[in-house]
């Protein structure tokens, strides 16, 4: 006789395991999500510029911050590295926010949300003739670029043209101004973008152009990273063999990029600066359209005496149109254009928030919630408690969890049924 006595070999149904423990927690129902949720230690800071210190709190502090958030500080970022649970925290917040007749909520999930899907999601809250015109524009524009390969080629060409026509700057150090002038010239990055050797690197399935096009047409998949798609210095680090095989027009700039890291970093930054306008040209809609849609929604909600709350599971899905979102968030109501209050909670990687957000975002931020704890402080993580929630949920079963959640009942402990 085994230590189990007369108990069955397993006290759960194997089929329940795949329903309760999927690859992505965000793909589960709210009932399963809440039954398996573990408290997350978070660093709360009141100042954006202060990257050190702060109070260690839990998710309830985030909920209180959203409830107390003033209209003139509409932004609450949830920071952290990729895979640290930022999107999970946004979803937890959504399930715990009290529904109010005075608040219109827009929840933007991270997965399978295409460019068209984002705009149509927001347009659901817009009415009137202009909203209908924007719906038609979004539908026809994105459908026209629905062929992935064609969109990749168009994006490559648009980047080359925009770099050449818009890449130069008059601000910065004399050295940077000179380097920008060279990289934006026909002999610089535009020549590289038109080269057959570099073409393969540009259009590689795992490269930034293919990834960005795929996301705009189909949304992010489970396998995609949280980091905003963009060029890095590594994308421009050609081998000596690649430089030798490059065409005459591109050989000089290819060699210069290979020899100097700082040069590649500047080139990557210049390419990323043109992603927004290039996405708009290729897909027919862009940041300006998003700003217009959100502005129209805010005007309409103001007439109804309502406010707008937007929860974003992953800010990087707005890559290429993020400028329009930021402009719409930070737009202030005036006598000539009355706008409803708009608050935004967004999950965003720390590097992107610190290095790429405009100054207006920092000045309009209410609280920062960072999943990286202060130096010298360890998270009080209990693996046994974390695993126990999943194991109990598997034993209880998805159907029973859904029923309990629908009725507002407390989660039962399946082990109490054992003799």
What does this molecule look like?
The chain is an alpha/beta fold and 419 residues long. 51% of the residues lie in helices and 9% in strands. It has 21 helices and seven strands. The chain has a seven-stranded mixed sheet with strand order 2-1-7-3-6-5-4, sandwiched between helices. Helix 1 (14-20) packs across helix 20 and helix 7 crosses helix 11. It is globular and about 75 Å long. The chain starts with 13 loop residues before the first helix and ends in a 12-residue tail after the last helix.
The helix content is: 40-55%
Task: Pick out the low-confidence regions.
Answer: none
Summarize the main sheet: 7 strands, mixed
Structural class label: alpha/beta
Distance between the termini: 17 Å
What sort of overall outline do the alpha carbons produce when their principal axes are compared?
Answer: globular
Strand order across the largest sheet: 2-1-7-3-6-5-4
Number-wise, the strands total: 7
Strand content: 5-15%
The mean pLDDT is 85
Secondary-structure element string: HHEEHEHEHHHHHHHHHHHHEHEHHEHH
Number of helices: 21
- Radius of gyration, in Å, reads 25 Å
What is the element layout, followed by pairings?
Elements: H1 14-20, H2 30-36, E1 42-45, E2 55-57, H3 59-68, E3 75-80, H4 86-96, E4 103-108, H5 115-123, H6 129-144, H7 148-166, H8 174-184, H9 189-193, H10 196-202, H11 208-218, H12 240-245, H13 248-259, H14 261-273, H15 275-283, H16 287-303, E5 307-312, H17 322-330, E6 342-349, H18 350-356, H19 359-363, E7 368-370, H20 383-396, H21 398-407
Parallel strand pairs: 3-6, 3-7, 4-5, 5-6
Antiparallel strand pairs: 1-2, 1-7
Helix pairs in contact: 1-20, 2-21, 5-6, 7-11, 7-15, 8-14, 13-14, 16-17
